[in-house]
Design brief:
The protein has helices spanning 25-28, 30-38, 40-43, 167-170, 172-175, 201-209, 214-217, 307-334, 352-366, and strands spanning 19-20, 46-50, 59-65, 68-74, 80-84, 99-100, 104-106, 113-115, 120-122, 146-152, 155-159, 187-197, 229-234, 237-242, 259-264, 268-273, 277-287, 290-299, 345-346. Helix 6 (201-209) crosses helix 8. 21% of the residues lie in helices and 28% in strands.
């Protein structure tokens, strides 16, 4: 069925407290997913990786995201660059796994070779036996295709269509939420790699930015009363915060501190925890039903954690995330029911950030704000 306004029309509310969410096919439909890849995941700054995972020149990391194979490369100048992960010859995917490739990216098919800057350096026998540089063939024009990239502290962003605002302007709504945090003193602490999760990427974002579920889903792993929470919506930045009246940063069994949970459209997630912990989540949309997730834990302000503290922190966060993953997978399963076609309901108070996120999805995929006119849902 062709994707059009009628397909994703959101049910109009009867009153301001009856707000409907995105319809089921927004999370399951292959054509909608392809539209997201062309718009939502290509127009803005897409979060794709961590600088700390690149140790030396020649380190490469292939990523399949937004339906596209891309390649992150650390070159001899200690710069991380991004390319489309395909050879200029027959468009074979060049790199299949994280590794160090030395000084040359070599295609396994016909041995076309590129340096770490993406320049084509060799095309063996391309003009015939022992004719490696035929007349008129311009090596400079056939290097790897670059992708626009920006590094913010330890976090790597790409803009697939090359048309987004400069990152500093794009992310300004988020920057204003981190006053008092010195990211220059950010220190890597630990990684939690959850692998593939059987859910649409949007559910992981939506779950993260709303506080409504915390006291129910995380009743044994957190101690942050709903009454202490508030929501945050500022353009393409949204989320929630909690000001715990009595901090308990030494609680080894539950999260019991003031926190702030923010997302920058479309897929960057960052959280800060009193007094000096930061968590950043990498959600890689794989297809309409699958997302991979990784979380890195940092400290700021020069704080160092003992091995025991790190182990306790990892254990808490592993449990919290697994609770969320079960919920998100069940949300995905629920979208196979015809009862979900209307999109379910949103809390007009606690899920304000979810509503803002869903508005951005609709506006990007449909290329028109008119779809939202007169509707109080997303």
């Amino acid at each position: 069925m062709p994707l059009n306004k009628k397909n994703i029309k959101i049910k109009s509310p009867k009153n301001k407290n009856t707000i409907f969410g995105l319809p089921a096919k927004s999370y399951t439909d292959t054509e909608f997913w392809e539209k997201e890849c062309e718009t939502v995941l290509s127009n803005g700054w897409l979060f794709v990786g961590f600088v700390n995972e690149f140790k030396k020149a020649g380190d490469v990391k292939p990523i399949f995201i937004a339906g596209k194979p891309i390649l992150l490369v650390k070159n001899e100048n200690n710069e991380i660059t991004a390319f489309h992960n395909v050879c200029s010859h027959r468009c074979l995917k060049l790199v299949n796994e994280d590794k160090n490739i030395g000084k040359i990216i070599r295609c396994p098919y016909h041995s076309w070779s590129y340096d770490l800057q993406g320049n084509l350096k060799a095309a063996p026998h391309v003009g015939g036996t022992n004719i490696h540089k035929p007349k008129g063939f311009n090596f400079k024009k056939h290097g790897l295709k670059k992708i626009r990239i920006h590094i913010w502290h330890d976090w790597i962003f790409v803009n697939l269509n090359g048309k987004a605002k400069k990152f500093q302007e794009y992310a300004k709504p988020m920057f204003s939420k981190f006053k008092g945090i010195d990211f220059k003193k950010l220190k890597y602490t630990a990684t939690l790699d959850f692998g593939k999760i059987n859910t649409n990427w949007k559910f992981l974002i939506e779950n993260f930015i709303e506080p409504y579920h915390v006291q129910f889903v995380h009743k044994t792993t957190t101690n942050q009363p709903l009454t202490d929470h508030y929501t945050i919506v500022d353009g393409i930045c949204y989320g929630s915060g909690v000001d715990v009246k009595k901090e308990d940063s030494k609680n080894s069994s539950a999260l019991s501190v003031s926190s702030k949970y923010l997302s920058l459209f479309p897929n960057f997630i960052i959280a800060t925890y009193y007094p000096n912990q930061v968590g950043v989540y990498l959600n890689i949309p794989i297809d309409a039903n699958t997302t991979s997730q990784k979380r890195i834990i940092y400290t700021v302000g020069g704080k160092k954690m003992s091995k025991e503290e790190i182990d306790i922190t990892k254990k808490i966060w592993w449990s919290v995330h697994k609770e969320d993953h079960e919920i998100c997978e069940r949300l995905q399963e629920g979208r196979s029911s015809p009862a979900s076609n209307e999109g379910g309901l949103l809390s007009p108070y606690w899920e304000e950030g979810v509503r803002a996120f869903q508005k951005l999805i609709i506006q990007a995929t449909m290329k028109s704000k008119k779809i939202m006119k007169g509707k109080k849902n997303v």
